[in-house]
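Quick log. Single chain, no ligands specified.
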Amino acid sequence: MTVKKSLVLVLTLVVVLTLAACGGNKNGNNASSNESPAASADNGAAEATGKLADIKKAGKIVLGTSAEYAPYEFHKNIDGKDTIVGFDIEIAKEIAKDLGVDLEIKDMDFGNLLAELKLGKIDFVIAGMTPDAERAKAVDFSKIYYEAKQGVLVRAEDNAKFNTMADLEGKAIGVQMGSTQEKIAQGIKGAKLKSLGKTTDLVLELKSKKVDALIAELPVAQGYANTNSDLALTAISPEYENSGSAVAVNKGEAGLLAEIQKTLDHLIADKKIDQWVSEMTAVSEQ
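-> predicted structure:
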């Protein structure tokens, strides 16, 4: 009987230890399961950091632009109220809509846009900006959303004098400060550059004969020629290796840039940008 009792006791202990081990394994599995959602939550939190998270938390995205560059962005009196419009503005509205936030627009000189972006005073830039190598050192760009040729604007009375790029040599040329057009003008032999922050001011310089010509993107130059009988668009078409416009965000804001690119992709696929260019060109000429 003593042997039998001992055997029963041993078997009982084996069963207890086995059940305890199973219970331990079960608890271990639960612990592992509990860690997984926590890890997922941590990953989700990581995805929500950066400028994109700040924008969604604030419920608004702040656009930096230079609103005197029709049809890209410009001021227009609508229902008695000064309003910033343009096809770049329509793009910005669509980006805000896709992010589920409001759009705030900050208007400033073109040359200040990237500095304000770096300081965090604006969240992104849309201003007919060309993503050249120099700018790309400071900020990240989307893919090109609109390609435009360059144009040369002169006084109508002088139009016959300007037929080729050589005719611009040695002339006083107005360009927007910090722009692609400034770089083009810097390559013209003997050209005397007048760089200002606003195209509207440059047009006044042209009309008052302080400069001989202006270089601007073709839709802009065409718009001024169409609405000013004393100005004319020449046949000259300056070339620049980096053309087209892109959206700028601060370096490292991959999440925000990816969301912006999604919006641009569907707008390009749906040909909405081409539609807005036509519509806003017409609005700028009214």
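Residues 1-47 form one domain.
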